[in-house]
Amino acid sequence: MVCIPHRHPYSLRTIGLWVLVCVLEAVFAQTLRRAAAQSAGAYRSPYGPKYTTPLHFQGLTASTATQYGQIAAAFGVSAGVFALFFFGEVPRVRKDILQKLPFFDTYLDRTVAPEDNPF
Question: Where is the signal peptide (predicted)?
Answer without folding.
Answer: 1-29
